């Protein structure tokens, strides 16, 4: 992704996941906003945005952070919201036996005590493979990848959801379901 698209992707993440009000938009409860409204508000706040640029970001974003509605009129972040107005209704799914969580070594002591918690987000994010989890961990410092016994959690009543971009979501992961290598 080139620098301009990367900058737009970060802007969209900020607006669609965390602070839509900074440009005067309101997301619906499933996180959607009309693309034309988003463009108009972004431009009014000095952020040049076009439909073509949005479509390029959605198409080329390696993390598949954004989803355009089937009718092509709306956009949303696939997951990762911290704004309280968004409560995407994901469909519960049975997870694979093991999923992975990428974090930094500096958080391990806390995780060993309290497990994985959502923090300011709605859900704990889990990856289907170690490579992706490691990339996530690298964003926070020296990476470490934790294995999560997700099927065992599911069998004990924990709920799992699969976001549009393939990220698995759950409310929390108690430390008893974590494998520390």
From TrEMBL:
Signal sequence region: none
Matches recorded under InterPro entries: Ptrans_KptA/Tpt1 (IPR002745), RNA_2'-PTrans_C (IPR042081), RNA_2'-PTrans_KptA (IPR022928), RNA_2'-PTrans_N (IPR042080)
Entry EC number(s): 2.7.1.-
SUPFAM superfamilies to which the protein is assigned, alphabetical: ADP-ribosylation
Entry superkingdom: Bacteria
Keywords linked to the UniProt accession: NAD, Transferase
Similarity annotation: Belongs to the KptA/TPT1 family.
Protein name per UniProt: Probable RNA 2'-phosphotransferase
Role noted for this protein: Removes the 2'-phosphate from RNA via an intermediate in which the phosphate is ADP-ribosylated by NAD followed by a presumed transesterification to release the RNA and generate ADP-ribose 1''-2''-cyclic phosphate (APPR>P). May function as an ADP-ribosylase.
Enzyme category, top tier: transferase
């Amino acid at each position: 992704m080139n620098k301009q698209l990367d900058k737009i992707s970060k802007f969209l993440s900020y607006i669609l996941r965390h602070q839509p009000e900074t440009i005067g938009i309101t997301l619906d409860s499933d996180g959607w906003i009309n693309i034309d409204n988003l463009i108009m508000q972004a431009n009014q706040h000095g952020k040049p945005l076009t439909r073509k640029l949005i479509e390029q970001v959605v198409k080329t974003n390696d993390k598949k952070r954004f989803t355009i509605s089937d009718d092509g009129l709306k956009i949303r972040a696939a997951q990762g919201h911290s704004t309280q107005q968004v409560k995407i209704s994901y469909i519960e799914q049975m997870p694979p036996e093991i999923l992975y969580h990428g974090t930094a070594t500096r958080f391990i002591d806390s995780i060993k005590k309290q497990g994985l918690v959502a923090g300011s987000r709605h859900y704990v994010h889990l990856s289907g493979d170690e490579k992706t989890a490691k990339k996530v961990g690298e964003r926070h410092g020296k990476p470490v990848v934790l294995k999560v016994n997700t099927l065992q959690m599911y069998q004990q009543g924990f709920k799992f959801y699969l976001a549009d971009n393939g990220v698995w979501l759950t409310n929390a992961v108690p430390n008893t379901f974590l494998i520390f290598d």
